[in-house]
Amino acid sequence: MNRQEILRRRIRTLLALFIVGMFLSGVTAFPILAELRLLSRVMGLPEIASPAANSPLDVWLVTVRNGLDDLYGRYPWIAYGTDWLAFAHVVLAILFIGPLRDPVRNLWVIEFGLIACVLVIPLALICGPIRGIPFFWRLIDCSFGVVGFIPLWLSRRFALELAAR
Fold first, then answer.
1. 19 and 97 in contact (C-beta within 8 Å)?
2. What tens-digit pLDDT sequence spans the chain (165 residues)?
3. Are 142 and 124 in contact (CB under 8 A)?
């Protein structure tokens, strides 16, 4: 196998992982309340979690579950915003099929993804406190940008090497 084939295989593997991650993060956002209810049952979380008796994560999960339960019960149309968020993740996953097929010609898509991954961090760190998101959860949100950046950065590096050949 020559170097070009190796580079193409590496790029395809990295982009396929990124696409699957984007797709899964999208489709799992549709049933978010059902997922939170299931997670709460599996973790044995109470109806109301007191900060003194539970970990910060437990308290946050119960708060989010109860908040969504109440909000969706009174205003079910608000979930439509989460549906659009989920849809955007699926559409963005589809966008990366272009570089999967031809990474050199569609290098701009990879660079777009890198920029988006970097922008996740200031969004989480600026908007998180405004919306009352706990710091540990903002770090989890930031990690999505970091984790997404790595395969895209490697893909870009390999695509540039491929273009030079």
1. yes
2. 799 999 999 999 999 999 999 999 999 999 999 999 999 999 998 887 776 668 898 989 999 999 999 999 999 999 999 999 999 999 999 999 999 999 999 999 999 999 999 999 999 999 999 999 999 999 999 999 999 999 999 999 999 999 998
3. yes
Phi-psi sector, 73: left (phi>0), alpha (psi -120 to 50), beta: alpha
> Which tokens in the block code for residue 79?
């979930």
* Amino acid at residue number 38: L
C-alpha triplet 104, 142, 94: angle, nearest 5°: 40
Instruction: Read off the tokens for 165.
Output: 């050949």
Which amino acid makes up residue 58? D
- Residue entry with tokens 């770090």: 139
Burial 48-63 (b: 16+ CB within 10 A, else e): ebeeeebeeebbbbbe
Angle at 143 between CA 141 and CA 148, to 5 degrees: 110
Classify residue 151 as exposed, middle or buried by CB count within 10 Å of its CB (0-12, 13-18, 19+): buried
Nearest CA-CA partner of 127 in 113, 137, 114: 137
pTM: 0.89
